[in-house]
Design a protein that fits this description.
heterodimer; A: 120 residues; mainly beta; seven-stranded mixed sheet; four-stranded antiparallel sheet; globular; B: 108 residues; six-stranded mixed sheet; three-stranded antiparallel sheet; 0% helix
Chain lengths: 120, 108
């Protein structure tokens, strides 16, 4: 059974940094691209970043480019999101998800999420 | 960027059929995926590639896509279907995933 567990969220001041982690199990982690998505309080879903299985290619939504970095450790079956220069508008629940391609890309398994609050 | 519009809410009586629309410019030329999100929980994929269901998703959930509207249909609605539902496409021009605005389904 696929299982994704996020950690690392918390309260951080504007301009601060935070590193999120996602522990994966139940599938061959290195075979899959992985993504981070977020959901601001009371709002909809937003894709944030994706990394290929071997880490060779990374994509980001424009609003986080230059501030967020996505990485992975396939040996430890872990996904990371390094968030720098955080802003109030980054406040959200952050989900990691497995990113798959059938006819087009979508997200077939999601973790429960970790809350990031950016506030002074 | 590509915009997907959903009605904010849909109400349906138990046993009836709920239809959740997802509007977008010529969305019929794209491939649509649907997610269910219950309060405080992670989203769950319920339909992918317009019409396919992941294993474990009841046949009551079905999808269609044509013209400027994609539709998620929930037949024989149950109380447990009460949730927010989001459509999603991959926008090849911006090369990113795009989600609809979300629809809250209330079972009366």
């Amino acid at each position: 059974e696929v299982h994704l567990v996020e950690s690392g969220g918390g309260l951080v001041q504007p301009g601060g940094s935070l590193r999120l982690s996602c522990a994966a199990s139940g599938f061959t982690f290195s075979d899959y691209s992985m993504s981070w998505l977020r959901q601001a309080p009371g709002k909809g879903l937003e894709w944030v970043a994706t990394i290929e299985g071997d880490g060779s290619e990374k994509k980001f939504v424009d609003s986080v480019k230059g501030r967020f970095t996505i990485s992975r450790d396939n040996a430890k079956k872990s996904l990371f999101l390094q968030m720098n220069s955080l802003r109030a508008e980054d406040t959200a629940v952050y989900f990691c998800a497995r990113y798959v391609l059938t006819r087009t890309f979508h997200f077939d398994y999601w973790g429960q999420g970790t809350l990031v609050t950016v506030s002074s | 960027s590509y915009v997907l519009t959903q009605p904010p809410s849909v109400s349906v009586a138990p046993g009836q059929t709920a239809r959740i629309t997802c509007g977008g410019n010529n969305i019929g030329s794209k491939v649509v995926h649907w997610y269910q999100q219950k309060p405080g929980q992670a989203p769950v994929l319920v339909v992918y590639d317009n019409i396919d269901r992941p294993s474990g998703i009841p046949e009551r959930f079905s999808g269609s896509n044509s013209g400027n509207t994609a539709t998620l249909t929930i037949s024989r609605v149950e109380a447990g279907d009460e949730a927010d539902y989001y459509c999603q496409v991959w926008d090849s021009i911006s090369d990113r995933g795009v989600f609809g605005t979300g629809t809250k389904v209330t079972v009366l």
